[in-house]
Specification:
Length: 138
């Protein structure tokens, strides 16, 4: 089964129906059909960190979403490890001219290791590394 990586941007967009990217994210996911979604612990941490600034309601909703993701057989969540951290840190250090976050570097290394080319995001950093962004600009 084809694997598609899921970035923080997608989780944020689907969690909030008022998000400017919500509809585009939903359309992108529907267009994929039956695929295995892949994300990382670090992406989920970033997602919860983002939602935490918006108050109790989104914190509670975010935690429920993460628990649902962790229990969803159609989503593979790659756990954190010292090795993935160090590999991404080296990648981060080698991309001095880029503005990639360390979480983006972990995501990109995960995608490369799993031979994933498509990513549910609108983050142009992924296209700079040759990945196909699936959430179109509106």
């Amino acid at each position: 089964m084809k694997e598609v990586f899921v970035d923080t941007h997608y989780w944020v967009a689907i969690a909030n129906p008022n998000d400017q990217w919500h509809e585009a994210a939903m359309l992108a996911k529907r267009a994929l059909g039956n695929v295995k979604l892949v994300t990382t612990d670090e992406v989920l941490i970033e997602f919860l960190s983002f939602l935490s600034r918006y108050g109790e309601l989104l914190r509670v909703q975010g935690a429920k979403i993460v628990r649902a993701i962790l229990n969803n057989a159609s989503v593979s969540v790659v756990p954190q490890s010292r090795q993935s951290f160090l590999t991404a840190l080296e990648f981060y250090e080698n991309r001095k001219d880029k503005q990639y976050s360390l979480v983006d570097c972990i995501s990109m290394m995960t995608m490369k290791n799993r031979l994933i080319t498509d990513v549910l995001t609108n983050d142009e950093h992924f296209s700079q590394e040759g990945f196909k962004i699936l959430i179109a600009k509106q």
